[in-house]
Design goal:
Blueprint: H1 2-15, E1 20-27, E2 37-44, H2 46-51, H3 54-62, E3 68-74, E4 78-85, E5 91-97, E6 106-109, E7 116-121, E8 126-130
Parallel strand pairs: 1-7
Antiparallel strand pairs: 1-4, 2-3, 2-5, 5-6, 7-8
Pfam families: IglE_N
Biased composition (Basic and acidic residues): 145-164
Region (Disordered): 130-171
């Protein structure tokens, strides 16, 4: 009975999502033309997120509201890691405030929230974002395993029957 209760508790807690989100941000040297930039992590309504202007989001850096979970300065040429307390419900937006954004500058994390996300920045936009299944951005990827190749079997020699000896005539 006690094991069943513990199992149920683990299931309920697991269904609620992670208590923290681990964020890894890879920022190459040329990111934001070599200048630091802000990252803003906040709880969002997906509909509102889709219609927000860059200037509205940028204003929250100086005057954060209750939706802001964390702000951080991202330095070009680094890999930085952050742990953010996950909201109990709702989506989370990661916004990168480039000096001159050119393309995607935000990532939306929808429920169920992942416990980790990797983001790689480019000069003026987000290059890629992934929910890692393996090593994070600063760990080299594992080399793909070569397929197992079995050596070919040697051809089997045909079965050869010795010739029958001639029968000698006699009584």
């Amino acid at each position: 009975m006690r094991r069943a209760a513990l199992g149920l508790l683990a299931l309920v807690l697991g269904a609620c999502g992670p208590s923290q989100i681990n964020i890894a941000v890879k920022s190459p040297v040329g990111t934001n033309m070599g200048r630091p930039l802000y990252m803003l992590v906040r709880q969002v309504d997906p509909k509102q997120y889709a219609n927000e202007a860059y200037s509205e989001v940028a204003a929250r850096v100086g005057v954060p509201d209750t939706t802001v979970l964390q702000t951080a300065v991202i330095y070009p040429g680094t890999i930085q890691r952050f742990q953010v307390k996950a909201p109990k419900e709702g989506s989370v937006a990661l916004s990168f405030l480039f000096t001159a954004p050119d393309g995607n500058w935000q990532v939306l994390l929808s429920p169920p929230l992942a416990s980790a996300v990797d983001v790689e920045l480019a000069t003026s936009r987000i290059l890629r974002d992934t929910i890692p299944q393996g090593p994070s951005l600063d760990e080299p990827p594992e080399a793909p395993k070569a397929p197992e190749v079995k050596p070919p079997e040697a051809p089997k020699a045909p079965e050869v029957k010795p010739p029958e000896a001639p029968k000698l005539g006699g009584k």
